[in-house]
Design brief:
Bound molecules: NADPH dihydro-nicotinamide-adenine-dinucleotide phosphate
Mean pLDDT: 96
Shape: globular
CATH superfamily of the domain at 145-337: Dihydrodipicolinate Reductase, domain 2
Radius of gyration: 20 Å
Amino acid sequence: MGKALIIGCGAVASVAIHKCVQNHEVFEEICIASRTKSKCDELKAKLDGGKTIITTAQIDAMDVPALIALINEYKPDIVMNLALPYQDLAIMDACLATKTNYMDTANYEPEDTAKFEYSWQWAYKERFEEAGITALLGSGFDPGVTGVFSAHALKHHFDEIEYLDILDCNGGDHGYPFATNFNPEINIREVSANGRYFENGQWIETKPMEIKRGYNFEDVGPKDMYLLYHEELESLAKNIPGIKRIRFFMTFGQSYLMHLKCLENVGMTSIEPIEFEGKKIIPLQFLKAVLPDPASLGPRTKGKTNIGCIFRGKKDGKDKTYYVYNICDHQECYQEVGSQGVAYTTGVPAMIGAMMLMTGEWDKKGVYNIEEFNPDPYMDALNKWGLPWKESFSPELVD
Ligand code: NDP
């Protein structure tokens, strides 16, 4: 069917690339382009021999002219941005200049400010419309599948959704006292920020980890979870008409929280540059360098993830509750693609999002969040490509 240019070759990209190669009827050709080309070449060597034609390239995605040159030379149908959120706008600029479809898994975040929001990317809407191309924002699990679950709930189960709780549980154990399951810099910036949730048209801010709840997750067991601000809350608050409250909870173990607190207390999570032996360094980037590489956690991580959405609202004038979720086993992911479940649950939806645009299933010009598209083909693809979903109509609720 077509060609994809994939930017980045880290934990998430590696899973998405495995899945593109499995889905060779859609992804006939892929180019893996990243800052460190040797990682792209290693992955190509592992995956070569199938039906998808794989090439590799070196690229600094912040270098827009170089990216434009690469896109013009390769002529992909889509650019899959699986690098870091810092590169989103540069890659969108290159897509605009070359009239190429774009997708990503995380919204833009300036490197020098720990703040993420959609305003920067939504500002491209008219220019993408005029260029006749699509930007699909946030096709990972959360954001990503959580938005598709919301569109599915709205289309098939509710006349009105009043309450949404997104529950992200990682019951996996990698055996390290402290490691992050995806890029440590992005992960720590996210969890050390203030919490925030949407209620009655307003955003309510909390201290980091201030709101704690317990929940008994299917196939994982009881876990403590904490209210975080998460990027899909911003778009879902806008795109679910009349929603009264949206919250996001993520589970953390005591060891993770204790180490994080300690690292914070000594200044290791700061993004303010400091002088060290005559050189400016950023403590959080230094910390990333000494922590285990998330891509190396695959063989060690055992247990399951369980991520989903609990909706409450009205159908035909009656109260209704609906829980839709996916359970994913870390070891099964490792057997299949050599990665742990967190990378898997992000990389599979990245491939599916790109497939939706490449096949023309989703064809709206402009810049859109994932819940703004028809959820049906995506929900089917989740079942087909490794993230089957389950549902319950009388789940335990979060108070
Ligand atoms: P990694 O750090 O493992 O990989 C990032 C990759 O991007 C690396 O290959 C890195 O290259 C490359 N890269 C970084 N900067 C540049 C640049 N300037 N130009 C070209 N390539 C660059 O991250 P993850 O795979 O864990 O995460 C990838 C993305 O997925 C992130 O945006 C993250 O926020 C998002 N994510 C989304 C989730 C969701 O559910 N929506 C969940 C988890 C992650 P190098 O090898 O040289 O470092």
